[in-house]
Amino acid sequence: MNEINEIVSDIKSGRVKPIYLLTGEEPYYIDKISDFIQENILQEEEKEFNQTVMYGRDVEVEDIVGAAKRFPMMAEKQVIIIKEAQYLSRTIDKLAAYAKNPQPSTVLVLNYKYNKIDKRKAVFKAIRSSGLVYESKRLYENQVSDWIRRVLGGKNYQVEPKAAQMLVEFLGTDLSKINNELQKLITILPPQTIITPQHIEDNIGISKDYNNFELRKAVGEKQVLKVNQIIQYFAQNPKGNPLVMTISLLNSYFTQLLIYHGLQNKSRDHVAKALGIRSFFVVDYITAAKNYPMRKVAQIISLLRDADVKSKGVGANQSNRDILKELLFKIMH
Fold it and tell me: Can you state the angle between helices 161-171 and 175-188, rounded to 10 degrees?
């Protein structure tokens, strides 16, 4: 985040690089930086003749170089933005010669998403020398809740830990998807609101009572009735609750529980750091550890692997509901 703020601050101060290579697995920040450049380098009246957007699947590197070497019209700079630059992966090294001696009046932005350019390539080395390379790394699942909290905090909102976790469980680590849902909440709810699970259920459509987060909690506490209610809800809403995701999240949960059992220092802060969770949730793992000794947890991880294979149609002729029901019965007994 500090690196992004520094890039934005430099642009605002007029310290603009001739080439920006925005690359990495997380597209959210690539789009944010690219959009900021597109909106702020040129005045509105300059953009018609001096701002060009190209798409990597539609152009050749030679087209980009030709455009970049042009001079701006009645402006100090021209801006050329290449979206989907990853489609040029096989030929992008041809850009190295231009990158070694870029046109000072051109700002060339390469949006190279979902992957990284090989750092050994000549083009990478040339851009790093003459321009700026920003790598957008995908956040781990345990980092996304804090990201949600920071984004909402910057907009004058707060969020309860369970509400943030519901978004992560439902939307995964795709920051663009999560940000879209946060924008809905910000539009609907007044500033200073503390966003609760009820707000998530009412405005985004994620059940606050029947979701993977609540399933894990109920399993950890051995609440058989609640587990069966969630299984039934999942069976009635299969699109929103795919079995593969449920098994994956249960596997992550019991893997964390196995790590918990192996910790010598079981203080709240140490457990939170070791498991990659917020301290608010440590009590759930303490409870689960009492219900599931280390040997049982190891058996459960094996059961989850078997269920994962079955969920993909290998060696089983069962419905998703029956696979999940059988799995959870074996886990809790």
Answer: 130
Burial class of residue 252 in the structure, from the number of CB atoms within 10 Å of its CB (0-12 exposed, 13-18 middle, 19+ buried): middle
Distances (CA, A) of 4 to 7, 150, 299: 5, 14, 45
Phi, psi of 55 (to 5 degrees): -120, 130
Measured distance CA(35)–CA(160) in Å, rounded:
30
Rounded to 5 degrees, φ, ψ at 117 are -75, 140
Distance, in Å, from the CA atom of 326 to the CA atom of 199, rounded to the nearest integer, reads: 33
Please report, in tens digits, the pLDDT of each residue of the chain (333 residues total): 688 999 999 999 999 999 999 999 999 999 999 999 999 999 999 999 999 999 999 999 999 999 999 999 999 999 999 999 999 999 999 999 999 999 999 999 999 999 888 889 999 999 999 999 999 998 888 889 999 999 999 999 999 999 998 898 888 888 999 999 999 999 999 999 999 999 999 998 888 889 998 999 999 999 999 999 999 999 988 888 889 989 999 999 999 999 999 999 999 999 999 998 888 899 999 999 999 999 999 999 999 999 999 888 776 678 888 999 999 999 999
C-alpha–C-alpha distance, residues 170 and 207, integer Å: 10
Which residue, 182, 144, 137, is CA-closest to 3? 137
